Amino acid sequence: MKILLSILLTLFLLKDASAQQSRFFFRKLTVADGLNDGGVLAIAQDSKGFMWFSTRAGLNRFDGYSVKNYSHIAGDSTSLPTSLSRAMSVDSSGGFLVGLEDGMLEYNQQTDRFIPVAALQNTWVLQIEPVNKTTVFIATRKGLVKYNPLTRKAIFYRNSNNEIFKSGIFSMERQNNDLLLAFEKGFYRFNLLTEQLQKIEIPFLKNETITVAEVDADKNYWFVVRDRAGLLKVSPDLQRYEVYNEYLETGKNTIRNFTSIIADQKGRVWVTTQLQGLLVYNPAINRFERFLHDPLKIWTPSTNLHSTAYCDRNGVIWVAGNNGVNYFNPDKNLFRIIPVFDKEPDIRNRRVARIATEDKNGKLWFATIDGVVKFDPVTNEYREWNNREGETPMIHFNSVRGIFCDDENNIWIATGRGINKYLQKENKMIFYTAKDSIPEVFYFSADKDRKGNFWFSSRDGDGFYYYNIGEKKFHSIRSFPGMNVFAGEGGRKVYHDSKGRYWLGFNGSGAGMYDPSSGKHYRWQASNNKKEGIAGNSIVDITEDKKGIIWISTFTGLTSIDPVSFEIKNYNHTNGLINNSVSALAVDEQNRLWIATGAGLQLLDSSRNYFTSFGLQHGLPSIEFPEHAASVMTGGDIMMPTQNGFIHFSPQQFTKEHKKLVPFFTSFTLPGKPEQPLLQNKIELQYDENFFTIGFAAINFENASGTWYAYKLDGVDEDWKYTQNRFADYTKLPGGNYIFRVRASDDRTEWNCSEQTINIHIATVFYKTWWFRLLMFLLAIALVYAFYRYRIRQQKKLLELQGKAQLLEKEKVMVMYESLKQQLNPHFLFNSLTSLSGLIQTDQKMAGDFLEQMSKIYRYILKNRDSELVSLKEELAFVQVYINLQKTRFKEGLQVKIDVSEDELHKKIAPVTLQNLVENAMKHNIIDLDTPLIIDIVSEDGYLLVKNNLQKKNMVETSNKQGLASLQSLYQYLSRRPVLIEETASEFIIRIPLI
């Protein structure tokens, strides 16, 4: 009897262990993601947080986004050797060591190269255990080695007198100040302070070889022993042990199953196997839970053949196998995945979930494409109700879209061809038909209102039907008080809010609401008017948050409506949603809104400002959620349907934890050139290399896609730029010095984090450099000065030419003037001599006077022949003499009147000007006693006017028509005011400017 109970207990535990597979989501890293190959031999994490995987073809470095490969390249001495790596570790000073089958490499981060360690040449390295900055212990085929990474020297303990040190080491595990060493000839404790070796006596392991060893949180020893079946757990006092061998195949042809044992940060023991997948020890049941590969369940491991495991600094477990790496965080697994069916998931779309409900006994009921499923979360048992050809129908139709449990623990089912009710106590399925006042049509949902009525929404008929729990009858919405106005609309959803308002979601025509307290009806449809229109017209789900705001999901976005103010806000991919196709909605106790979309799950915080997104990397079985509603379970748990089963989670387990991320630079790219790694903190660029892209990242393996970055280029960006893109582009930057800054955070609102910088120098094109500008400035000054000197010279030449021209002009005028004065001689002399001759014969006394006046005239000319100007007084006296001589000849036929102001007599005038004008008047006009020539000389407005009456001669023989022109030219030189000549019908007037 005891044996039977033990067998049953074991079977139950094994069944329970198998049922737990869905509680971890194993993310994959394979060749498709960039690994050299899938045969992973060792795993380690370096000081910056990068994950390293050694494979048959070389090494792989993973930053959460992409994999960088290192391998042997023939002819390249800086590439990796061909030897396999089975051990890697970061030393205490931050260096990274890689153990090979024929030596060890040290990674140089500055050059991104691996440097061979000469001291360990031709040594097979099995394990590496750093102790401090100057000490690293290495387990090798040649025994224990102590290596100093600063001096790069090694001490081989096999050279000591202790024979044990000369044997190879299978396992090395650090425990405080000791190293636990599994030699071929026994299990030993090596004290790191005294370097003393002490054998650990294990009574039941006499002369047996331990190949793998680990210590858990309770200080139990876990061993894999060569030639002994099973996994051993040994008590801390080494007196008791237990064997776990239920996961072993037996027989002489069976390969060794257990490949590694690790204890994570919480002391849990994880075991990798070659046959039975990944195991984790559960001390509560003293058994191992097993995680096996299932090709139909993407959340399971990618293989059952594992080579090693590793726990990183953040508690993430990394498991290596024959086709890459699986990784997960055992303490951060929000979603439990529940398959819709336990068999035949790939027929009739049986992976696709629709909606779930919970009955009074804690059982889960699923509406599916292929009928109804009852799931027991305790035993993992499934039961199906569906129709098959040739068999009695179990429900109206296999396509089920609505399901709920009533107060009597009966299950109501809305199918594509009618309504069913399953009576659990009687194990009986009821088919409702038209005779029950409910048509056998297509139904989208089944809901309960706060008054106990059951609502069924259909695309056909009257659209909405309800079951009155008191009457136990079905009715059309036409008979529901106040709701008849919505009859005939294709229905998809009914929701009864906390204030008694009925919200209806229509199949293509928007949403409606009826408020019984006011008797008012409201309608909303999609519209280009943001204040009135909702996000879409095909409604999927409706719910109410803790503040009374109604949330409506549609095929084309999410809408919130305030029932009091009727304020509408729409959400789509432009303001936060990752996808416009929105389906299931649920509000948790913190008033956060959980939103299922066509591209993943999102959480809108209670402030309604920030979204958090969840995808495959967070444990979802599918990022696509179908067009069905969410279900809130007892205790506040939420179930949502996906295209690959249901997700079941407790929203209170999710808290926004801020993990400080350290950014690093990944690449620097110039147009037309290959991407370059950023290994230095300074970049030197030519002036034409001012278009570039800077790549950066941060280690966040649990949510790489959710990492936010803030960056800015000092001198270019006025403020920080926030993005989830890992690249920053800059174009057309002028030459100069710049500092690029970047931060990383897992929270869009939290930026109290470290910052990385890189200095960038762009050479300035020569014509923009300071020296060139200075040279151009000096050259400009020189040119201006040269131009100035040139202008001075030109002006000097011009002045000289102008001076010469003036001199020439003066000379010309003076010549003309001299000629003008010389004209006095022949005419005047001839006429005067004629008159004098007549006087001598008739009146010798007058002849004497006449001769004296002639002498005065010529004396005046001789006196002023070198003068440009004479006073007006002198000129008037001279002309008076001249007039007196002419009056001797013409008597009263010549009448000259002089009227000049005393104030004008000091002014200047060219000599013989008046004589010439008087002579000119006499030359051109008739002089007769009967018609005398009257000449007036007066001063007026700074001019001297000489005018005469006009009585022109018919011909003037002695005129060359140059006299007045010469006079005008003379005065152009002498005065700024011109000589003015005016002729009227009766007068001839000449105005001479007084100087």
From TrEMBL:
Source organism of this protein record: Lacibacter sediminis
Every Signal transduction histidine kinase internal region domain range: 817-892
Lineage: Bacteria, Pseudomonadati, Bacteroidota, Chitinophagia, Chitinophagales
Signal peptide: 1-19
A Pfam family that the UniProt record links to this protein: Reg_prop
GO cellular component, one term: membrane
Transmembrane regions: 770-788
SUPFAM superfamilies the UniProt entry points to: Calcium-dependent phosphotriesterase (SSF63829)
Keyword Ligase assigned: no
MF terms in GO: phosphorelay sensor kinase activity
Residues of the Two component regulator three Y domain: 701-762
Keywords for this protein: Kinase, Membrane, Phosphoprotein, Signal, Transferase, Transmembrane, Transmembrane helix
Protein name: Histidine kinase
PANTHER family: HYBRID SIGNAL TRANSDUCTION HISTIDINE KINASE C (PTHR43547:SF2), TWO-COMPONENT HISTIDINE KINASE (PTHR43547)
InterPro entries per the UniProt record, alphabetical: Ig-like_fold (IPR013783), Reg_prop (IPR011110), Sig_transdc_His_kin_internal (IPR010559), WD40/YVTN_repeat-like_dom_sf (IPR015943), Y_Y_Y (IPR011123)
Domain of life: Bacteria
